[in-house]
Amino acid sequence: xxxxxxxxxxxxxxxxxxxxxxxxxxxxxxxxxxxxxxxxxxxxxxxxxxxxxxxxxxxxxxxxxxxxxxxxxxxxxxxxxxxxxxxxxxxxxxxxxxxxxxxxxxxxxxxxxxxxxxxxxxxxxxxxxxxxxxxxxxxxxxxxxxxxxxxxxxxxxxxxxxxxxxxxxxxxxxxxxxxxxxxxxxxxxxxxxxxxxxxxxxxxxxxxxxxxxxxxxxxxxxxxxxxxxxxxxxxxxxxxxxxxxxx
Length: 247
Ligand code: SF4
Hints:
The chain is α+β, with helices and mostly antiparallel strands. The protein is built from 10 helices and 8 strands. A two-stranded antiparallel ribbon has the order 1-2. The site of iron/sulfur cluster has 10 residues, from loops.
């Protein structure tokens, strides 16, 4: 088993001390090797935000069995695309083949309306925030359930993407079925690990957009082999926390 190095970082978040304890590989790895630590840190950031901002009058609406948000585009950091592909490969048959088919069907449906090509064109031409939002709504209107959604619950909950961990709302669940910026009330996070690592770590594979839409992850990894440099786990995490501390 790969040797791990324990680490501890103390922060102040929402006026309260937060102690982060995690372990990362001692050997040289791509950012994929520190993903478990990032997932753990993201969970702690989200839990701290919930403690700080959620009260009885406005509880979190998200719960198992409500997969309304799991029909939205999920932006993956480049290295998370390799993680999702590996998660699928570890599934037992016949589930693995069924999940792969859902990914393929979702991509085919989006390709029929030229969704990905339009997004790339918009971003290359310098788009507005509103245009990206509108494009995300086009995805949602296709009603493509996430390939991991089973009985409206996430079947890969411990392995789910960073962006999924950060999506929590206090507005009624029905608003997530027709999402709009003025009806869906998100828990606003001071630190969104998903966004930070998308900006911090990518290769020449990913420029515009800065993420891989999860539904395209399996297709994407086949044509984009992992080109990340390898560094020791503590070096990756030093970069991450230096970036986190930037104004
Ligand atoms: S990975 Fe899980 S939480 Fe994320 S969209 Fe899919 S089913 Fe929902």
